[in-house]
Amino acid sequence: MKNWQMLLNVHNFVSLFSYFICMCAPLFLIISQLHAKEMRPHLDVAIQDTYLQSLPSPFPSLGEDELSQDWGKEYHIGVHLARNLYLYPAMIAFQRSKILLPQEENKRKVELHYFILSCYYFGKQYIDVINTFEHSLLDHLDTTLPFIHDIFIILFDSYLRCEEMEKAQWALQCFNALYPSESEQLALSGAIIQANIPYMQQLLCQVERAKKENEDQYSKQSEIKVATASLSADPFQIQHSQNFHKDSCHKAAEEIVAHFHKSSKKPILAGALNAIFPGLGYLYIGQKQSAFTAFCLNASFTAATIHFFQKGNLPGALIALSFECGWYFGGIVGAHEEAILLNERLFEKISHEKIFPHKLSPLLLLQYGF
Could you give the CA distance from residue 144 to residue 152 in angstroms, rounded to a whole number? Predict the structure, then answer.
């Protein structure tokens, strides 16, 4: 009789263990993919109409003859609406002006395309920005025009927001070819938008190496005696004074990275701690109530599973084990997800404190308005 009872217990244990493995297999596959998820903080910069009004227009004002025509009236209305951030009515006015514009007015047509593009951008309609650029006259312009500066910034930001990385890299390379002194700041602002900490660190390391090379070059230059008084001015000192704002941007980015590394939590570690001891991962990220709840639920269902198994109630043990698997693996995924959310809110907080003072957003690097 004892032998039969022992065989029954072994059979129940094997059945319970097999059921546990079957329940865990798909969940292990889910957990193995947790490390692939990245932070996606929301770093939208809201501008005021006063800020937009402070930006000059890249185009000459309409003349009296132009204002007397229907397309000129629509153009004029659109500009005033856009400056007050009535972007959708402004875009409609620009579209109407483009329809009424005579065919020979190519320059004004380019201006209207640029204004429509800007309306979409300031309205955060990034897909429409890309479509407008790719189906307008703006992609065949002379790069010496002043508003090309803003077009490449708008494209870079829009491609990033739409996760078209190859096109964003193309826009950044074009901007770097035309405006090399501003490309580092634009690249940093793009890295901040994406919360790409490794790329931010890479950019800052490149800046530090460039600074060191400049200092070495300056030390060599200082050893050379200049005979002509007209050449006595220090070109490196002039360059440093002109790049003071750029240096402050680099310092702000370094502070963002340092603060984030100091206060952020590791999502993989949070999930691993919750796997080792249910609730420990939540405690690691500072959620004490969730940690207590996870511990109590897992302890309760584990105890219920053991109780039913000892009593020989295999169906009850399987049901209790099903709930325990759900809470156990759900707790691992939950701790991982909560750590990511915590890091996102942390990055948003420390970045917002630096974005406006140091212009670490593509939107704040624009030189022209409407």
Answer: 13
Strands (E), 34-100: none
Specify whether the CB–CB gap between 342 and 265 falls below 8 A.
yes
Answer with the residue of higher pLDDT: 306 or 11. 306
Matching residue, tokens 């400056």:
83
Q: What is the pTM of this model?
A: 0.75
Poorest-pLDDT segment among 5-14, 46-55, 226-235:
226-235
With beta carbons less than 8 A apart as the criterion, state whether 37 and 340 touch.
Answer: yes
Cβ–Cβ < 8 Å for 248, 207: no
CA atoms within 13 A on the CB side of 13: 7
